[in-house]
C-alpha cells in the first residue's frame, strides 16, 4: 500500500508534487519503519518451531515451507501484535495497563492477601492472556499464575518477550506505521516505541516458589478438570466467544468451591459481524442473569469503567470503552477440598522463564 501511494504521488502534476514534498518524504520514512518492524518479526519467529514442549514438528520441507501466500487477515494480526506489544510491554502503554490490569491485580491482592495466605499456593488462570503482561504481573506478586492464549501470533511474541528478552528497551518498533488516518503531525504515524519497558527476566527475583507458565490452545478445549483454580482473571476476553455462556459455564466448572472470577472489559462480541460464524450477543443485563443461573454469586459490580485498548495516544480518533468490572464467587458447598488436577488436551505448552 505504501508503494501504491508513492507511485500515485509521483504521477501527480509537478505543482502538486512540490506541495506534497513533506508527505512524499514521509512515505520514504514509512518504508524504513516497516523494514524495522520486519526485523523485529524475524527475531520473534526465530526458532519458534521449538517453542512448545509437547509438540515436535517434522523437519521436512512439506511441513516447514520457506514461502507461502500472505493473506490480508494475517497482516491484520501482525499489526494487532505490534499494538499489543505497545500495550503490554512499553512505557507508553502503562496508561492502558493502569486502566485495565490494575483493578484486577488490586482485587487479587485484596482477596488473597499475602498477609493471610501463602501466595504461591494460590493458582490463578488468565485466559486470553495475549502477550502475557497481566499474568506476569500477577506472578510477580508471588502467585502461581498461568496464561492461556489461542493465537499463534500472540504466542510467538509472548515467547520472545518472556524467554528471549534480557534487558530494558532493547528493541524498537513502530506500532502505528500502518495507521494513515487521523494524524495531526507526520511524526505521529511513525512514532517509535521501545520495548520491553522492564526486564522480564527479573521475575525470578520476585518468584521463589510460585510458578508462571503459558499454555497454548483453545480455552474451552484445554481446561477440562473441575475445581482446579482459586481464581480466574479475564480482561477483554469473554466477548471473544461465539457463545458467551460456554465461557461462563467453563469458568464456573474449573474454579474451586470458594474460588473467584474477576472480569473487566466491554462486550464487543468479536464474531457478531462475521456472516460465516455463529454468534450471540446478550446485553450485560442478560449476562448477569446467566452468571446467577450458572451458580455464581456476584460480589462486586461497576459499570462505565473507562478503558483503552491499543490506542495511539496522539491520534485524532480514539475509542474509549465504558467497560464492566465485576467479581463473582463460586459458592463453597462444604465438600472436601477438591483434588487439584492438571491441564490436559493442550495444543502446545510453553514453560516460561526457566
Account of the protein in words:
One of its GO terms (biological process) is methylation. One of its GO terms (molecular function) is carnosine N-methyltransferase activity. Its EC number is 2.1.1.22. The chain has a domain at 94-151 and 202-351: Rossmann fold (3-Layer(aba) Sandwich). The strands form two sheets. It has an eight-stranded mixed beta sheet with strand order 8-9-7-6-1-2-5-10, sandwiched between helices. The chain has 13 helices and ten strands. 37% of the residues lie in helices and 18% in strands. It is of the alpha/beta class. The two termini are 42 Å apart. Mean pLDDT is 90; it is low at 335-354. The protein has helices at 2-10, 14-19, 21-45, 72-89, 94-100, 102-111, 133-140, 152-164, 186-189, 203-206, 219-222, 244-254, 284-294, and strands spanning 123-127, 144-149, 171-173, 193-195, 212-216, 229-235, 255-265, 297-307, 321-329, 348-351. Helix 4 (72-89) runs parallel beside helix 8 (152-164) and helix 12 runs parallel beside helix 13 (284-294).
Amino acid at each position: 500500500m505504501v508503494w501504491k501511494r508513492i507511485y500515485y504521488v509521483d504521477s501527480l502534476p509537478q505543482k502538486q508534487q512540490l506541495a506534497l514534498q513533506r508527505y512524499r518524504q514521509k512515505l520514504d520514512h514509512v518504508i524504513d519503519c516497516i523494514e524495522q518492524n520486519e526485523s523485529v518479526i524475524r527475531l520473534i519467529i526465530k526458532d519458534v518451531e521449538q517453542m512448545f514442549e509437547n509438540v515436535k514438528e517434522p523437519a521436512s520441507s512439506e511441513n516447514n515451507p520457506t514461502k507461502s501466500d500472505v493473506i490480508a487477515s494475517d497482516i491484520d494480526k501482525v499489526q494487532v501484535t505490534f499494538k499489543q506489544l505497545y500495550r503490554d510491554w512499553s512505557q507508553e502503554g502503562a496508561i492502558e495497563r493502569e486502566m485495565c490490569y490494575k483493578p484486577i491485580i488490586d482485587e487479587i491482592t485484596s482477596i488473597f492477601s499475602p498477609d493471610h495466605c501463602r501466595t504461591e499456593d494460590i493458582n490463578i488462570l488468565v485466559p486470553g492472556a495475549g502477550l502475557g503482561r497481566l499474568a506476569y504481573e500477577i506472578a510477580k506478586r508471588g502467585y502461581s499464575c498461568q496464561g492461556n492464549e489461542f493465537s499463534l501470533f500472540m504466542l510467538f511474541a509472548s515467547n520472545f518477550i518472556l524467554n528471549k528478552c534480557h534487558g530494558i528497551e532493547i528493541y524498537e518498533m513502530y506500532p502505528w506505521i500502518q495507521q494513515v488516518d487521523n494524524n495531526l503531525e507526520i511524526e505521529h504515524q511513525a512514532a517509535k516505541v521501545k520495548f520491553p519497558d522492564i526486564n522480564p527476566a527479573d521475575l525470578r527475583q520476585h518468584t521463589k516458589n510460585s510458578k508462571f507458565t503459558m499454555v497454548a490452545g483453545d480455552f474451552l478445549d484445554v481446561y477440562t478438570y473441575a475445581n482446579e483454580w482459586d481464581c480466574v482473571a479475564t480482561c477483554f476476553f469473554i466477548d471473544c466467544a461465539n457463545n458467551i455462556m460456554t465461557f461462563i459455564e467453563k469458568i464456573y466448572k474449573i474454579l474451586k468451591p470458594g474460588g473467584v472470577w474477576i472480569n473487566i472489559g466491554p462486550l464487543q462480541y468479536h464474531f457478531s459481524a462475521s456472516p460465516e460464524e455463529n454468534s450471540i450477543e446478550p446485553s450485560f443485563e442478560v449476562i448477569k442473569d446467566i452468571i446467577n443461573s450458572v451458580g455464581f454469586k456476584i460480589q462486586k459490580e461497576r459499570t462505565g469503567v473507562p478503558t483503552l485498548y491499543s490506542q495511539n495516544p496522539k491520534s485524532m480518533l480514539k475509542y474509549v470503552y465504558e467497560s464492566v468490572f465485576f467479581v463473582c464467587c463460586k459458592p463453597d458447598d462444604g465438600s472436601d477440598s477438591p483434588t487439584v488436577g492438571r491441564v490436559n488436551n493442550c495444543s502446545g505448552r510453553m514453560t516460561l522463564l526457566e
